[in-house]
């Protein structure tokens, strides 16, 4: 089949990396439509995609996103059912609009019905998974909650069953990192079915705009403050790290179940900023000496690429997908999960050796140029689609 014959429909419950993918598909004149649970009012800054190709089905997802503001997020059973219905209704909605030969690229959890419909019409179904295999994810998060003696309800069994059915049904599964690819292989998914296409970074937005202050050592964390992100390991590492003027800046929402644990630590030198617009992040990356992400599990955290693009060295775990972005000891450091002492050691090394930190910063900028931005991500997708 010629690539010119492709008509591609995307499905994504939220934004994630899928609107970057949509822009790239549009660049190659391949995008037919992108369906999302996001309301159009929140997509006004998504340039590069013709508005007529963006189809919003926000009726379940939008109130789910707003449940905290209307005080409906305190019941776990409601959150679980709401999330399930948001994905299910979007999947059914898209399936009704798939009426001819197409290739459907659907974020996992929202593509089973529509993907099978595309296949029945002679097309292809690609399941795009942004995190580790869902069963692997459920198991490792259960381990982490047990580690901290925190109740864990687990991922909705309906979601696990649906995602595994998607993995089985899809022609291909696309993943962003080697860590995620290996999690699928461990779960006995054929390696030939799993294709790795790593994310890019917005190089037009993320670049150095200032420098860290020489009279302090600033550490940055960006992400949800949660057990999944390994935040308590960072907090322990920060407490053990010795520096006369150390600071930890935390950007992101704080999960309620981790707050009692945070309160056990000394946090006088920790600043919790909360969520901020993405466009404000370059200043924080540029003013930080190091970015730390000790995640227990995820796909490929885009914040790491953003930090590198601003010349900020990265300390992260393999389970954050970091090995697809940097080489250990060259642009930053790769540390094992659940080992705060390893983070402390790297922080101490960077603070004691400012020349090394500067070298890693320069290497980070070079590395990002080698990796390329989202255009490189699009080029990988185009190359992959040509193999059909």
Explained architecture:
- This is Glycosyl transferase, group 1 family protein.
- The protein is an alpha/beta fold and about 400 residues long.
- It folds into 2 domains: about 5-200 and about 375-385, Rossmann fold, CATH 3.40.50; about 215-370, 3-Layer(aba) Sandwich (Rossmann fold), CATH 3.40.50.2000.
- About 40% of the residues lie in helices and about 15% in strands.
- The chain contains 14 helices and 13 strands.
- The strands form 2 sheets. Strands 3-2-1-4-5-6-7 form a 7-stranded parallel β-sheet, sandwiched between helices.
- Helix 8 packs across helix 12 and helix 12 crosses helix 13 (about 355-370).
- It is globular and about 65 Å long.
- The N and C termini lie close together (about 5 Å).
Short description:
This protein has 388 residues and is an alpha/beta fold. The chain is 39% helix and 15% strand. 43% of the residues are buried.
């Amino acid at each position: 089949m010629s690539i010119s014959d492709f008509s591609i429909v995307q499905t994504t419950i939220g934004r994630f990396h899928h609107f970057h993918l949509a822009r790239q598909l549009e660049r190659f004149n391949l995008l037919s439509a992108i369906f999302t649970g996001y309301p159009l009012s929140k997509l006004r800054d998504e340039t590069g995609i013709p508005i007529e190709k963006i189809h919003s089905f926000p009726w379940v997802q939008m109130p789910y996103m707003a449940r905290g503001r209307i005080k409906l997020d305190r019941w776990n059973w409601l959150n679980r059912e709401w999330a399930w219905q948001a994905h299910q209704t979007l999947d059914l909605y898209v399936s009704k609009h798939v009426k001819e030969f197409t290739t459907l690229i659907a974020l996992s959890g929202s593509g089973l019905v529509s993907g099978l419909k595309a296949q029945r019409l002679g097309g292809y179904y690609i399941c795009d998974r942004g995190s580790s295999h869902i069963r692997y994810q459920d198991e490792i998060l259960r381990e982490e909650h047990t580690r901290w003696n925190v109740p864990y309800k687990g991922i909705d069994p309906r979601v696990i069953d649906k995602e595994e059915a998607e993995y089985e049904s899809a022609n291909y599964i696309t993943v962003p990192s080697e860590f995620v690819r290996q999690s699928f292989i461990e779960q006995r998914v054929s390696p030939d079915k799993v294709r790795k296409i790593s994310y890019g970074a917005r190089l037009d937005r993320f670049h150095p705009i200032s420098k860290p202050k020489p009279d302090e050592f600033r550490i940055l964390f960006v992400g949800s403050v949660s057990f999944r992100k390994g935040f308590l390991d960072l907090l322990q590492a920060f407490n053990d790290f010795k520096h006369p003027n150390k600071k930890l800046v935390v950007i992101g929402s704080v999960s309620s179940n981790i707050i009692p644990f945070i309160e056990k630590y000394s946090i006088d030198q920790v600043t919790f900023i909360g969520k901020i617009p993405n466009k404000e992040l370059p200043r924080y990356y540029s003013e930080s000496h190091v970015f730390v992400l000790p995640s227990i599990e995820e796909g490929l955290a885009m914040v790491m690429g953003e930090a590198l693009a601003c010349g900020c060295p990265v300390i992260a775990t393999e389970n954050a997908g970091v090995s697809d972005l940097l080489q250990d000891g060259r642009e930053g450091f790769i540390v094992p999960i659940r080992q705060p002492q390893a983070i402390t050691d790297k922080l101490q090394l960077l603070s004691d050796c400012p020349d090394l930190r500067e070298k890693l910063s320069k290497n980070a900028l070079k590395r990002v140029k080698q990796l390329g931005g989202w255009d490189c991500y699009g080029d990988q997708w185009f190359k992959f689609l040509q193999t059909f």
